[in-house]
């Protein structure tokens, strides 16, 4: 298992290098002069701009600038913000807890409700509850995050006045953003759980458990759900990446001072080092999440345990 984890960590290196190359290339060809952004309109004299270009190596060829950027990353240097001259790593670390709190609350909401509704819908297949769950799930899959957020703000914040529509710091301020991000993920998890459970509950060993007189709750949770978990876990892992991506828009809508809002504000201000650092951090979290999911696979699925043992 340890060798497997080490190999997977090594495999993250080319993935993250690819991410750095893509984002660096996109921002390299984006219009705008970083020197002028740093100096402002009044102080942006030709002499001052030329000095900034020389200090930051902005006149160097593309591959030279990219190589210097990667070398800085290896030393833990994500660069400096063009606007306030603060280290990018410091700005990201400052806002990371807020983004992760929102993502984890949204994930918990999506997993608990999605798996619960999916299991009940499968057990009560073709019932009214099953049809209502699938209609509800269809709405979550169809609507984008920003539209869900605006509808929730209008209904629960403006019309009913039950919940705050912006800010961060209290549980009440997390409810609407968590619902905004979690609704779509919950819908996908519910659909996958239902589909996976329907494949399992008609198997012979489930019928045998019924014949032995075991309680229905035990059969569903211990036998059926456990054997249906692999595709469900895969779906949950993919949805965590969507949660992180959805936080970029959702944090801006609800004015949550997390990494997502920081990245949107930085894109508007052409503050490229912050954008690069934010994308790289989200990509790293997503890759580590996939690694953790593979480890969970090995703990749940005996077939993967066997393959890992043979690989040794």
Automatic annotation (TrEMBL):
It holds the Pfam family BPD_transp_1_N. Keywords: Cell membrane, Ion transport, Membrane, Nickel, Nickel transport, Transmembrane, Transmembrane helix, Transport. It is a multi-pass membrane protein. Residues 96-297 form the ABC transmembrane type-1 domain. The keyword Transcription regulation does not apply. InterPro entries: BPD_transp_1_N, MetI-like, MetI-like_sf, Opp2B. It is found in: Cell membrane. PROSITE patterns: ABC_TM1. It comes from the Bacteria. The chain crosses the membrane at residues 9-29, 100-123, 135-158, 170-190, 229-259, 279-300. One of its GO terms (cellular component) is plasma membrane. The keyword Glycosyltransferase does not apply. One of its GO terms (molecular function) is nickel cation transmembrane transporter activity. Belongs to the binding-protein-dependent transport system permease family. OppBC subfamily. PANTHER family: DIPEPTIDE TRANSPORT SYSTEM PERMEASE PROTEIN DPPB-RELATED. The complex is composed of two ATP-binding proteins (NikD and NikE), two transmembrane proteins (NikB and NikC) and a solute-binding protein (NikA). This is Nickel import system permease protein NikB. It comes from Oscillibacter hominis.
